[in-house]
Amino acid sequence: MPRQSPYPELAALQERISELPHLKQNIVMTYAILGGLEHSVERTAADLAERMGVPAPHFSRARRELTDDGWLEYTHREGQVKFFRLGEAATGREVVVPLRSRPTG
Predict the structure, then answer these.
(1) How far apart are CA 75 and CA 90, in angstroms?
(2) What are the backbone angles phi and psi of residue 27, rounded to the nearest 5°?
(3) Does residue 75 contact residue 83 with C-beta atoms inside 8 Å?
(4) Record's InterPro entries (predicted)?
């Protein structure tokens, strides 16, 4: 009998992203680990790129492509810094009301 993962959501995500290039797989998994299936990751692109050991421009370009393809979703910005979370393609969940900005107050 195959051993079941203690993290079935991450196992399912790994299966969904298996056809993506390795850099994009690593970016999606980084967002999954840091933000889970629902939360925004409030770290800069430069910080995430450094943690992954890739040049910031490569990270930013791959993240933009992942956003365009629905793997990541823009959530909000603080100043010039944009923040993202997993998108519909990554979570397998349909978002009824997309999150576009953080409420103030």
Answers:
(1) 15
(2) -65, -50
(3) yes
(4) WH-like_DNA-bd_sf (IPR036388), WH_DNA-bd_sf (IPR036390)
Within-domain flag for 46? yes
pLDDT at 105: 47
Within a domain: 65: yes
4 Cβ partners below 8 Å, 6+ apart? none
What would the pLDDT profile of 7-42 be if each residue is shown by its tens digit? 678 888 899 999 999 999 999 999 999 998 889 999
- Domain-embedded: residue 38: yes
> For residue 85, what is the domain's CATH number?
1.10.10.10
Q: Are 71 and 89 in contact (CB under 8 A)?
A: yes
Give CA–CA dist 63/11, Å, rounded: 21
Measured between its terminal Cα atoms, the distance across the chain in Å is: 52
Which residue reads 């409030």 in tokens? 42
- Segments forming the whole domain that contains residue 39: 8-91
Q: How many domains does the chain have?
A: 1
